[in-house]
Amino acid sequence: MSLASYLLGIGASLLVLGFAVEQLRRRRMRERHAVWWFAAGLLALAASIFPRSLDWLASAIGISLPVNLVFFTSIAILFLVSLQHSAELTTLESKTRTLAERIALLELRLKSVEDEMDDDSV
Amino acid sequence: MATASHNILVVVPALNEEASVGAVVTSILAANPNVTVLVVDDGSTDATRDVALAAGAHVASLPFNLGVGGAMRVGFHYAIEHGHDVVVQVDADGQHDPAEIPALVASLDEADLVLGARFAGVGGYRVRGPRKWAMVVLASVLSRSLKTHLTDTTSGFRASGPRAIALFARQYPAEYLGDTIESLVIAARSGLRVTQTPVAMRSRTTGAPSHNALKSAIYLARAVLALIFAYVRPASTYATKVVT
Question: What pTM does this model have?
Answer without folding.
Answer: 0.82
